[in-house]
Task: structure prediction
Amino acid sequence: MSEQGKNAVPEIFTKRVSAHLSQQELESRILKFLGERRICVLSTSRDNVPRSTPILYRNVGFTIYMAGEPGLKLGNIKLNPRVSIGLFDPKAEYSDNMNDISGLQISGHAKLMSKQDPGFFEAFRLFGRPETWAEHWFGMMIEVVPDKIEMLDMGLKGEGYAARQIWTAPGV
Result:
């Protein structure tokens, strides 16, 4: 490859597209992305001190459930239910293809559920563990209802769409 070819700026950097996916297509792609992964990063904060925790999750539609062991994240949520969740496609970590970069940034409200709360055991069952385990567990289920989901998918540029697409919950 010539020196000029090595220094050429890839089209993905210069291509300007602003087209948006239809609401139905965006929702379908977000749900597919959520359903294909199991680990996210949950970000909480207290007194302007952020904390990000890798954690297993499951989703039912756009609602995210996590099994939270006792720790700072639970205390943070009690004081400030506003949370952020980050997910990415791990194949991009070892790929030189810019089209492989994709992820979700979710902003929403978290609710903690103890064994006495409605919905706790339904959420616990999402993780495929025997329900008897929950009786001996000291943690809480975390339910996150998103207000906004930002999807970044560089591959969308090749389809003629903006790489950044935004979903907002109805009524928000």
User: Anything to note?
Assistant: The helical segments are 3-7, 11-14, 23-35, 72-79, 120-125, 131-135. The chain is about 25% helix and 35% strand.
